[in-house]
Design brief:
Length: 240
């Protein structure tokens, strides 16, 4: 009994740190209990679906690129056209936006809450510049002049929900399109020309990267005696 009392007394005299340490090393009962399955959160499910979608698109794109021949020659119109054709197939099979569709989507999302025509046109200009597109025809300046004319006529800033005034602006835009020789039915042709320009730029970037990689490799001792390879002879399929 005396021994038991001393033992109890001794345990009460343990420093707080030691007592805590003992509790930390104890294995909780819940460790052995079978935990109920955690319900998948909506956020988890959404991320999973996004990941699977991206994975499927990537695999689809890679599958096409492994089969199609691409010649890295931005100066050859046939090579540019073939590259554009391959990338179009990739977009269609993998359900990806074309550059034209991407620009259209950007315009829709960036301008949907803009109330006035002037800010709308300035935003279009900003999008064009960020996309690296050029206004070779000077259409933007003409559209701003048309807006100035309409606002001068209505004697106030033109709001996009002002149907009557917007009709006046659209009539002015039609005059500009006619002057520039732009017709709505030719839009698919303009989109195709845009895709060819983009394809040429992408091939130029591929060529630049390939040349830089080969020059870097040639500086290595084991490749000093190797003959230079023409970029056009490279088969991208061998590197995928």
């Amino acid at each position: 009994m005396a021994f038991a009392s001393r033992l109890l007394s001794k345990s009460k005299q343990l420093p707080a740190g030691q007592s805590l340490l003992q509790r930390e090393h104890a294995v909780p009962v819940r460790f052995f209990a079978k935990e109920a399955p955690r319900q998948a959160l909506k956020g988890d499910e959404m991320l999973k679906n996004i990941f699977l979608e991206v994975k499927n698109k990537f695999e689809t794109a890679m599958g096409i690129l492994k089969k199609e021949k691409i010649t890295i020659d931005p100066d050859d119109p046939a090579a540019v056209a073939q590259y554009a054709k391959v990338m179009k197939t990739v977009r269609e099979k993998a359900d990806l936006f074309s550059e034209s569709q991407r620009i259209k989507y950007t315009i829709q999302t960036r301008t949907q809450d803009i109330p006035d025509a002037r800010t709308y046109l300035l935003t279009l200009k900003e999008i064009r510049i960020k996309r690296g597109l050029t206004d070779e025809l000077g259409a933007e300046a003409m559209m701003m002049d048309a807006l100035e004319k309409v606002e001068k006529e209505i004697k106030k800033p033109l709001l996009r929900n002002d149907k009557k005034a917007m009709a006046l602006l659209m009539a002015e835009f039609d005059k500009i399109n006619k002057k520039l020789g732009i017709q709505r039915e030719d839009l698919p042709k303009y989109e195709e020309q845009l895709e060819l320009k983009i394809s040429k730029a992408q091939l130029e970037e591929l060529k630049k990267d390939a040349v830089e990689a080969m020059e870097t490799q040639k500086k290595r001792e084991e490749f000093k005696d190797e003959e230079a390879v023409d970029v056009k002879s490279l088969d991208i399929r061998n590197f995928i």
